[in-house]
Amino acid sequence: MAFLCAPGLTFFLTYSIFSAVLGMLQFGYNTGVINAPEKNIENFMKDVYKDRYGEDISEEFIQQLYSVAVSIFAIGGMLGGFSGGWMANRFGRKGGLLLNNVLGIAGACLMGFTKVSHSYEMLFLGRFIIGVNCGLNTSLVPMYISEIAPLNLRGGLGTVNQLAVTVGLLLSQVLGIEQILGTNEGWPILLGLAICPAILQLILLPVCPESPRYLLITKQWEEEARKALRRLRASGSVEEDIEEMRAEERAQQSESHISTMELICSPTLRPPLIIGIVMQLSQQFSGINAVFYYSTSLFMSSGLTEESAKFATIGIGAIMVVMTLVSIPLMDRTGRRTLHLYGLGGMFIFSIFITISFLIKEMIDWMSYLSVVATLGFVVFFAVGPGSIPWMITAELFSQGPRPSAMAIAVLVNWMANFVVGIGFPSMKTALENYTFLPFSVFLAIFWIFTYKKVPETKNKTFEEILALFRHNNGRSMLNCTNSLEPQSMNSGIEHAALMVSEEKTQHDSLFGTTSFSLTVEGMGPYPLSDSTNLLGPGSSSYGPGGVLGLAGSGSGLGGQCYTNYGTNLQTPQAARKCHYDEVDDYSFRRHSAHGRMSYSPYFGRKYLVVSKRRSQSLDED
């Protein structure tokens, strides 16, 4: 309730978020809708095959056809998710969402008319197209919501995406029961109802503004961005938002984009990339989509009737919604790594219980209910950890430059693993029978060990601090340094970290006369410095004898004197670097590193590295 009353959550912002998040509801609905009518769809495929070829289809082949109908959705999602960034920049966030609804309507119509056309190929095509639609939604919707939300609401509103997915899942499961649409006549309508979120979004979204960030940063339309912000904030005072966006634009310009191949080949960025990939695999190979896609047949094989199995599936959807709400406050309070460990550990324990219930269901009648309880527990722990944390950690491991490529790889890996589970689980279930969940138990154990040994805690840490952990812990476990950073790690980490600079607001006349710079690195400890130390790489030798920053002036040289006090008694316990600089005409400095050279201006508006101008003062760095 406190979140609903938070400052900045205006009516029009709420309306815009609701309109956009219909895309994630579409994703959840189409993930779960194929589950309940499994037997009805298989019966339809049998009838079509017999009419075409005059013979009965084998059980093995019908399972393969059904698994294609399930998993081709993930193939479409892979294509859509990978194209999301291009579409967002080409047509805008809002424009991309509106165009994407054409795919949603087309896919829903194809699925809805499958039985009329007497063709299961139309079902496959419809599932593929709706998969592309959902893949684009998973990219465009979070992007749009994060860009229209004020800074204080961005984290909380980010969880709205996962909530919409779980609501969509629950809705599909409720509508799929036999009393509503889970019948031989009703299942095409059930699949065709995917048209509703698309049409509703087409009606509601045109009233919403385009993302102000897209308008200002990508299109350079400042006045349109201001108009959009005034509507979203219900206020004429939007200067703070505009300044923040300008700062982000300058930060993007200062940090070069890193291609996918450069990201893969970079020794510095490879460890966080591997962690991001394994985190995505831990979500999909945990076995959760086996539950979402096939829970009805799983429950039936454990001894439940078809009707009871469908109600148990509804219970899974309801648990997902409740636990997503519960996990929202835990995310920032407990930490990402800790929650992920709890989630994987709980899923491992309950996957063992699922296997036990399958093994002894013939001996004990009530054991089928244990399988239901164990599956619900499995879903509870998924919602606590692996449900949303892999996406969050993957984004937090990378700075502005490599993040787009890293997220594109993450989307591709996630959907690919989704496809593998969707296509392979029926065959695995036939081959392993009662031991179906044992491979997932093995994967969960491996992922838990990997998370414990390798994954750092990213809560309340800057990109510089996270990258410093990787460099400091080269070849060692990161567990020891998830909550503390040593000065040496920071010194080495800053060289490769994404760098943002900001200027304290000063009067225009301070640009003239004797000026000095003060340097503060927020959230970082003191650095042991030598007389030749340059935290940001070597500066040009013509601009001074040995500054902390590689400072460069275009019109006149920069001279000064520096000394380092290493502090050997109680009065001077920390190393301090003091410098005094003379006038410089061009207030810019350059960072040189192994990855190239970047130029910065002190007129930015971000934290982390703060460069400010003050008249006739010395520079102190602790």
Automatic annotation (TrEMBL):
A single MF term (Gene Ontology): transmembrane transporter activity
Keyword Transmembrane helix attached: yes
Residue ranges of the TM segments: 65-86, 98-118, 124-145, 157-175, 187-207, 314-332, 339-360, 366-385, 406-428, 434-452
GO cellular component labels: membrane
UniProt domain Major facilitator superfamily (MFS) profile: residue ranges: 16-459
Localization per record: Membrane
Organism: Drosophila melanogaster (Fruit fly)
Keywords: Glycoprotein, Membrane, Sugar transport, Transmembrane, Transmembrane helix, Transport
UniProt-listed PANTHER family: GLUCOSE TRANSPORTER TYPE 1 (PTHR23503:SF128), SOLUTE CARRIER FAMILY 2 (PTHR23503)
Topology relative to the membrane: Multi-pass membrane protein
Protein name: Glucose transporter 1, isoform AA
Source species taxonomy: Eukaryota, Metazoa, Ecdysozoa, Arthropoda, Hexapoda
Main location: membrane
Family statement: Belongs to the major facilitator superfamily. Sugar transporter (TC 2.A.1.1) family.
